[in-house]
Design a protein that fits this description.
Helices cover about 40% and strands about 20% of the residues. It is globular, with a radius of gyration of 19 Å. Helix 10 links the parallel strand 13 and strand 14. The longest helix is centred in the N-terminal third of the chain and has 18 residues. The strands form 3 sheets. It has a 7-stranded mixed β-sheet with strand order 3-2-4-5-7-6-12, sandwiched between helices. Strands 9-11-10-13-14 form a 5-stranded mixed β-sheet, with helices on both faces. The protein folds into 2 domains: about 180 residues, 3-Layer(aba) Sandwich (Rossmann fold), CATH 3.40.50.970; about 130 residues, Rossmann fold (3-Layer(aba) Sandwich). By secondary structure, the chain is α/β, with parallel strands linked by helices.
Protein backbone atom coordinates (compact mmCIF):
# COMPACT_ATOMS: atom_id res chain seq x y z
CA UNK A 1 0.00 0.00 0.00
CA UNK A 2 1.37 3.42 -1.03
CA UNK A 3 0.70 6.82 0.52
CA UNK A 4 -0.41 9.27 -2.18
CA UNK A 5 -2.22 12.57 -2.39
CA UNK A 6 -5.13 12.74 -4.81
CA UNK A 7 -3.00 14.58 -7.38
CA UNK A 8 -0.43 11.78 -7.29
CA UNK A 9 -3.17 9.13 -7.50
CA UNK A 10 -4.63 10.86 -10.57
CA UNK A 11 -1.15 11.02 -12.09
CA UNK A 12 -0.69 7.30 -11.51
CA UNK A 13 -4.06 6.51 -13.10
CA UNK A 14 -3.26 8.64 -16.16
CA UNK A 15 0.18 7.07 -16.48
CA UNK A 16 -1.20 3.51 -16.26
CA UNK A 17 -4.00 4.13 -18.76
CA UNK A 18 -1.74 5.94 -21.25
CA UNK A 19 0.65 2.98 -21.07
CA UNK A 20 -2.18 0.47 -21.48
CA UNK A 21 -3.97 2.17 -24.40
CA UNK A 22 -2.17 4.30 -27.00
CA UNK A 23 -5.46 6.03 -27.88
CA UNK A 24 -5.48 7.80 -24.51
CA UNK A 25 -3.98 11.30 -24.53
CA UNK A 26 -4.26 14.34 -22.28
CA UNK A 27 -4.71 18.01 -23.11
CA UNK A 28 -5.27 21.25 -21.25
CA UNK A 29 -3.71 24.46 -20.02
CA UNK A 30 -0.42 23.78 -18.29
CA UNK A 31 -0.63 19.98 -18.31
CA UNK A 32 3.02 19.70 -19.39
CA UNK A 33 4.41 20.44 -15.93
CA UNK A 34 7.54 18.89 -14.43
CA UNK A 35 7.65 16.90 -11.22
CA UNK A 36 10.18 19.53 -10.07
CA UNK A 37 7.44 22.18 -10.28
CA UNK A 38 5.30 20.26 -7.79
CA UNK A 39 5.31 16.45 -7.37
CA UNK A 40 1.69 16.54 -6.14
CA UNK A 41 0.29 17.86 -9.44
CA UNK A 42 -1.84 15.41 -11.44
CA UNK A 43 0.06 15.70 -14.74
CA UNK A 44 3.61 16.04 -13.40
CA UNK A 45 6.24 14.58 -15.79
CA UNK A 46 3.71 13.05 -18.18
CA UNK A 47 5.01 15.26 -20.99
CA UNK A 48 8.55 14.07 -20.32
CA UNK A 49 7.52 10.42 -20.29
CA UNK A 50 4.95 10.34 -23.14
CA UNK A 51 5.97 13.20 -25.42
CA UNK A 52 4.13 15.97 -27.23
CA UNK A 53 1.99 13.57 -29.26
CA UNK A 54 0.23 12.35 -26.10
CA UNK A 55 0.42 15.42 -23.81
CA UNK A 56 -0.93 18.63 -25.37
CA UNK A 57 -0.40 21.99 -23.68
CA UNK A 58 -3.24 24.03 -25.15
CA UNK A 59 -3.96 27.74 -25.59
CA UNK A 60 -5.97 29.43 -22.83
CA UNK A 61 -9.36 28.54 -24.32
CA UNK A 62 -11.68 26.16 -22.47
CA UNK A 63 -14.04 26.10 -25.45
CA UNK A 64 -11.20 24.95 -27.72
CA UNK A 65 -10.12 22.28 -25.21
CA UNK A 66 -13.64 20.88 -25.02
CA UNK A 67 -14.00 20.99 -28.81
CA UNK A 68 -10.72 19.11 -29.16
CA UNK A 69 -12.05 16.43 -26.81
CA UNK A 70 -15.31 15.98 -28.70
CA UNK A 71 -13.59 15.79 -32.08
CA UNK A 72 -10.97 13.36 -30.83
CA UNK A 73 -13.59 11.09 -29.26
CA UNK A 74 -15.62 11.03 -32.47
CA UNK A 75 -12.43 10.10 -34.33
CA UNK A 76 -11.79 7.05 -32.15
CA UNK A 77 -9.36 8.41 -29.58
CA UNK A 78 -9.89 8.51 -25.81
CA UNK A 79 -9.09 12.07 -24.71
CA UNK A 80 -8.66 13.19 -21.10
CA UNK A 81 -8.83 16.97 -21.07
CA UNK A 82 -8.46 19.35 -18.14
CA UNK A 83 -10.60 22.40 -17.42
CA UNK A 84 -8.43 24.14 -14.87
CA UNK A 85 -11.15 25.46 -12.50
CA UNK A 86 -14.79 24.54 -12.08
CA UNK A 87 -16.28 27.97 -12.95
CA UNK A 88 -14.41 27.81 -16.27
CA UNK A 89 -16.71 24.92 -17.17
CA UNK A 90 -19.16 27.60 -18.23
CA UNK A 91 -16.80 28.45 -21.11
CA UNK A 92 -16.57 24.80 -22.19
CA UNK A 93 -20.20 23.89 -21.62
CA UNK A 94 -21.39 24.32 -25.22
CA UNK A 95 -19.22 21.49 -26.51
CA UNK A 96 -19.66 19.31 -23.41
CA UNK A 97 -23.40 19.84 -22.85
CA UNK A 98 -24.68 20.36 -26.38
CA UNK A 99 -22.42 17.89 -28.17
CA UNK A 100 -20.55 15.40 -25.97
CA UNK A 101 -23.58 14.63 -23.81
CA UNK A 102 -25.92 14.12 -26.75
CA UNK A 103 -23.93 12.46 -29.54
CA UNK A 104 -24.35 8.87 -28.38
CA UNK A 105 -28.07 9.41 -27.83
CA UNK A 106 -28.42 10.89 -31.32
CA UNK A 107 -26.70 7.82 -32.79
CA UNK A 108 -29.24 5.52 -31.16
CA UNK A 109 -26.46 4.02 -29.07
CA UNK A 110 -24.59 2.79 -32.16
CA UNK A 111 -21.59 5.04 -31.62
CA UNK A 112 -19.30 5.49 -28.63
CA UNK A 113 -17.99 8.84 -27.43
CA UNK A 114 -15.36 8.17 -24.77
CA UNK A 115 -13.93 11.29 -23.22
CA UNK A 116 -13.07 12.47 -19.73
CA UNK A 117 -13.20 16.10 -18.64
CA UNK A 118 -11.13 16.65 -15.49
CA UNK A 119 -12.13 19.71 -13.49
CA UNK A 120 -10.52 21.21 -10.39
CA UNK A 121 -12.95 22.52 -7.80
CA UNK A 122 -13.29 23.66 -4.22
CA UNK A 123 -12.77 26.61 -1.90
CA UNK A 124 -9.93 27.00 0.57
CA UNK A 125 -7.15 28.62 -1.48
CA UNK A 126 -8.22 32.25 -1.29
CA UNK A 127 -8.53 32.19 -5.08
CA UNK A 128 -11.88 33.97 -5.18
CA UNK A 129 -15.27 33.24 -6.64
CA UNK A 130 -14.10 32.96 -10.27
CA UNK A 131 -11.97 29.93 -9.38
CA UNK A 132 -13.76 28.18 -6.51
CA UNK A 133 -17.46 27.87 -7.39
CA UNK A 134 -18.75 24.28 -7.13
CA UNK A 135 -20.97 23.50 -10.14
CA UNK A 136 -21.50 19.75 -9.91
CA UNK A 137 -25.30 20.12 -9.81
CA UNK A 138 -25.20 21.96 -13.16
CA UNK A 139 -23.36 19.05 -14.78
CA UNK A 140 -25.54 16.40 -13.12
CA UNK A 141 -28.61 18.12 -14.57
CA UNK A 142 -27.43 17.36 -18.12
CA UNK A 143 -28.51 13.94 -19.45
CA UNK A 144 -25.73 12.02 -21.14
CA UNK A 145 -22.92 13.03 -18.80
CA UNK A 146 -21.59 10.88 -15.98
CA UNK A 147 -20.42 12.91 -12.98
CA UNK A 148 -17.72 11.63 -10.62
CA UNK A 149 -16.47 13.40 -7.45
CA UNK A 150 -13.98 11.24 -5.51
CA UNK A 151 -13.24 11.86 -1.84
CA UNK A 152 -10.05 9.83 -1.38
CA UNK A 153 -6.89 9.23 -3.43
CA UNK A 154 -7.69 5.51 -3.73
CA UNK A 155 -11.15 6.24 -5.11
CA UNK A 156 -9.75 8.92 -7.42
CA UNK A 157 -7.34 6.47 -9.02
CA UNK A 158 -9.84 3.64 -9.42
CA UNK A 159 -12.65 5.90 -10.65
CA UNK A 160 -10.46 7.76 -13.14
CA UNK A 161 -9.24 4.51 -14.66
CA UNK A 162 -12.87 3.37 -14.96
CA UNK A 163 -13.84 6.73 -16.48
CA UNK A 164 -11.11 6.54 -19.13
CA UNK A 165 -12.32 3.07 -20.15
CA UNK A 166 -15.99 4.14 -20.23
CA UNK A 167 -17.56 4.63 -23.66
CA UNK A 168 -19.57 7.64 -22.46
CA UNK A 169 -18.43 11.18 -21.58
CA UNK A 170 -17.45 11.51 -17.92
CA UNK A 171 -16.97 14.75 -15.99
CA UNK A 172 -14.40 14.00 -13.28
CA UNK A 173 -14.31 16.68 -10.57
CA UNK A 174 -11.33 16.85 -8.18
CA UNK A 175 -11.22 19.04 -5.08
CA UNK A 176 -7.85 20.79 -5.07
CA UNK A 177 -7.47 20.64 -1.27
CA UNK A 178 -7.34 16.84 -1.52
CA UNK A 179 -4.24 16.93 -3.74
CA UNK A 180 -2.10 17.45 -0.65
CA UNK A 181 -3.62 14.92 1.77
CA UNK A 182 -1.75 11.58 1.50
CA UNK A 183 -3.80 8.44 2.12
CA UNK A 184 -3.36 4.73 1.35
CA UNK A 185 -3.67 3.71 -2.32
CA UNK A 186 -3.34 0.09 -3.48
CA UNK A 187 -0.27 -0.49 -5.63
CA UNK A 188 -1.86 -3.25 -7.70
CA UNK A 189 -4.15 -2.77 -10.71
CA UNK A 190 -7.77 -2.03 -9.78
CA UNK A 191 -10.89 -0.22 -10.99
CA UNK A 192 -13.58 1.42 -8.88
CA UNK A 193 -17.02 1.08 -10.48
CA UNK A 194 -18.76 4.28 -11.54
CA UNK A 195 -22.22 4.58 -9.99
CA UNK A 196 -21.52 2.81 -6.70
CA UNK A 197 -21.54 4.72 -3.40
CA UNK A 198 -19.66 3.47 -0.35
CA UNK A 199 -20.60 3.46 3.32
CA UNK A 200 -17.44 4.90 4.87
CA UNK A 201 -18.72 4.60 8.44
CA UNK A 202 -21.45 2.41 9.86
CA UNK A 203 -24.06 3.94 12.17
CA UNK A 204 -27.57 3.44 13.51
CA UNK A 205 -28.98 6.90 14.33
CA UNK A 206 -28.63 9.13 11.28
CA UNK A 207 -27.43 8.88 7.67
CA UNK A 208 -25.02 11.57 6.46
CA UNK A 209 -24.74 11.62 2.66
CA UNK A 210 -21.79 13.53 1.25
CA UNK A 211 -19.05 13.55 -1.41
CA UNK A 212 -15.65 15.01 -2.30
CA UNK A 213 -13.82 17.09 0.35
CA UNK A 214 -16.82 17.10 2.69
CA UNK A 215 -16.25 13.41 3.47
CA UNK A 216 -13.48 14.46 5.86
CA UNK A 217 -15.83 16.90 7.59
CA UNK A 218 -18.49 14.19 7.89
CA UNK A 219 -16.10 11.65 9.41
CA UNK A 220 -14.77 14.17 11.96
CA UNK A 221 -18.30 15.13 12.93
CA UNK A 222 -19.30 11.48 13.22
CA UNK A 223 -16.39 10.84 15.58
CA UNK A 224 -17.48 13.78 17.73
CA UNK A 225 -21.10 12.64 17.75
CA UNK A 226 -20.06 9.13 18.78
CA UNK A 227 -18.57 10.55 21.97
CA UNK A 228 -22.07 11.76 22.80
CA UNK A 229 -23.69 8.43 22.00
CA UNK A 230 -24.96 9.34 18.51
CA UNK A 231 -23.80 6.96 15.79
CA UNK A 232 -23.83 8.52 12.32
CA UNK A 233 -23.62 6.41 9.17
CA UNK A 234 -21.55 8.21 6.52
CA UNK A 235 -22.34 7.49 2.87
CA UNK A 236 -19.85 8.76 0.27
CA UNK A 237 -21.66 9.04 -3.07
CA UNK A 238 -18.41 9.12 -5.11
CA UNK A 239 -20.59 9.33 -8.24
CA UNK A 240 -23.46 11.77 -8.63
CA UNK A 241 -24.52 10.40 -12.03
CA UNK A 242 -25.39 7.58 -12.13
CA UNK A 243 -26.64 7.90 -8.56
CA UNK A 244 -26.51 4.87 -6.27
CA UNK A 245 -30.12 5.09 -5.12
CA UNK A 246 -30.07 1.69 -3.42
CA UNK A 247 -27.26 2.50 -0.98
CA UNK A 248 -28.88 5.80 0.03
CA UNK A 249 -32.33 4.30 0.54
CA UNK A 250 -30.99 1.27 2.40
CA UNK A 251 -29.07 3.48 4.83
CA UNK A 252 -32.02 5.82 5.49
CA UNK A 253 -34.36 2.89 6.08
CA UNK A 254 -31.83 1.64 8.61
CA UNK A 255 -31.32 4.94 10.51
CA UNK A 256 -34.60 6.78 9.88
CA UNK A 257 -32.87 10.15 9.53
CA UNK A 258 -30.99 12.01 6.80
CA UNK A 259 -28.53 14.92 6.61
CA UNK A 260 -26.92 15.83 3.28
CA UNK A 261 -23.62 17.72 3.33
CA UNK A 262 -21.93 19.49 0.43
CA UNK A 263 -19.74 22.54 -0.13
CA UNK A 264 -21.70 23.90 -3.10
CA UNK A 265 -24.29 26.62 -2.54
CA UNK A 266 -27.66 25.54 -1.18
CA UNK A 267 -30.24 26.60 -3.78
CA UNK A 268 -30.36 24.07 -6.60
CA UNK A 269 -27.58 22.04 -4.99
CA UNK A 270 -27.43 18.27 -5.46
CA UNK A 271 -28.57 17.77 -1.84
CA UNK A 272 -32.07 18.59 -3.07
CA UNK A 273 -31.95 15.60 -5.44
CA UNK A 274 -30.87 13.26 -2.62
CA UNK A 275 -33.61 14.56 -0.32
CA UNK A 276 -36.23 14.23 -3.06
CA UNK A 277 -35.16 10.64 -3.69
CA UNK A 278 -35.51 9.75 -0.01
CA UNK A 279 -38.89 11.49 0.20
CA UNK A 280 -40.15 9.52 -2.79
CA UNK A 281 -38.71 6.13 -1.87
CA UNK A 282 -38.34 6.02 1.93
CA UNK A 283 -40.69 8.64 3.38
CA UNK A 284 -42.34 6.14 5.72
CA UNK A 285 -38.94 5.31 7.23
CA UNK A 286 -38.16 8.91 8.23
CA UNK A 287 -38.41 9.65 11.95
CA UNK A 288 -37.68 13.36 11.48
CA UNK A 289 -37.37 15.92 8.66
CA UNK A 290 -34.16 15.78 6.66
CA UNK A 291 -31.54 18.50 6.97
CA UNK A 292 -29.11 20.07 4.47
CA UNK A 293 -25.71 21.47 5.44
CA UNK A 294 -24.26 23.43 2.52
CA UNK A 295 -22.35 26.49 1.49
CA UNK A 296 -24.38 29.72 1.68
CA UNK A 297 -25.96 31.28 -1.39
CA UNK A 298 -23.13 33.73 -2.00
CA UNK A 299 -20.08 33.78 -4.29
CA UNK A 300 -17.02 32.23 -2.65
CA UNK A 301 -15.20 35.05 -0.79
CA UNK A 302 -11.50 35.71 -1.34
CA UNK A 303 -10.92 36.90 2.26
CA UNK A 304 -9.61 33.95 4.34
CA UNK A 305 -11.97 34.52 7.31
CA UNK A 306 -14.97 34.90 5.01
CA UNK A 307 -13.91 31.87 2.98
CA UNK A 308 -13.77 29.80 6.18
CA UNK A 309 -17.30 31.02 6.92
CA UNK A 310 -18.38 29.83 3.48
CA UNK A 311 -17.06 26.26 3.80
CA UNK A 312 -19.31 23.96 5.91
CA UNK A 313 -17.60 22.53 8.99
CA UNK A 314 -18.03 19.83 11.64
CA UNK A 315 -19.86 22.14 14.05
CA UNK A 316 -22.58 22.90 11.51
CA UNK A 317 -23.03 19.24 10.71
CA UNK A 318 -23.13 18.23 14.38
CA UNK A 319 -25.75 20.90 15.05
CA UNK A 320 -27.90 19.69 12.14
CA UNK A 321 -27.72 16.09 13.36
CA UNK A 322 -28.67 17.07 16.89
CA UNK A 323 -31.72 18.92 15.58
CA UNK A 324 -33.24 15.65 14.34
CA UNK A 325 -31.82 13.00 16.68
Amino acid sequence: MQQLGMGQAVNQALREEMTRDERVFIAGEGVGVSIHDNPMLPTADLLKDFGVARVKDTPVSEAAIAGLAVGAAVSGLRPVVEIMFNPFFTLASDMIVNHAAKLRYLSGGKSTFPLVVRIKTGAGFGAGCQHAHNLEAWVAHCPGLKVVMPSTPADAKGLLKAAIRDDNPVVFIEDMMLYFVPEPVPAEEYLTPIGKAEVKRQGRDVTVVTWSKMLGVALKAAAGLAQEGIEAEVVDLRTLVPLDRETIISSVRKTGRLVVLHEATRTGGFSGEVCALVTEEAFSSLKAPFRRVTGPDIPVPVSPPLERFYIPDEEQLIAAVKEIV
